[in-house]
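Memo to structure team: turn this sequence into structure tokens by end of day. - J.P.
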Amino acid sequence: MNAPAFLSGQLLLALPGMGDPRFSRAVIAMCAHDEEGALGIGIGRLMPRIRLHDLLAQLDIDPGEAPDAAIHAGGPVEPQRGFVLHGLDWGGQDTLHVGGAWGLTSTLDVLRAIAAGKGPSRWLVALGYAGWAPGQLEEEMTGNAWFTAPASEKLLFDTPVEQRWPAAFAATGVDVRLLAPEIGHA
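Reply from structure team:
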């Protein structure tokens, strides 16, 4: 597996032998990765019992034109913190442009813009994130916990959540039915 040196703008896919059940079949949109560590947003699982209108009500934002979309389980770190992955047709002061493919905004201005019908045309909301200390992700990669795949707008915004994990593998030519949970040694 040849992974780029840094994985920003890529997808991180949990392999079947992943030891941490919180990341079983995880699909993580990698938003930042450098020598300081890594941050990604989970896009392969939805939060139970909370939807966008519930979140907006907690933040005293009138939902306006915003659809009552599902909220993604972004990761186990700071699960009360919100993030919006979105197309590059909208940007706020603190929007991080990720690999020329999507934006990441964690300030309320994006939610207000979505509610007002003036936000990005394509978006998803997540609570929490996955984070790694310097060198931690690289170590996990050598332990066969993760696989990298290219990200696409279709996979991020059009593919149903429950199909993202197999679809991301399929985009690289891998049939998930053939993946084994054990690590092989030659």
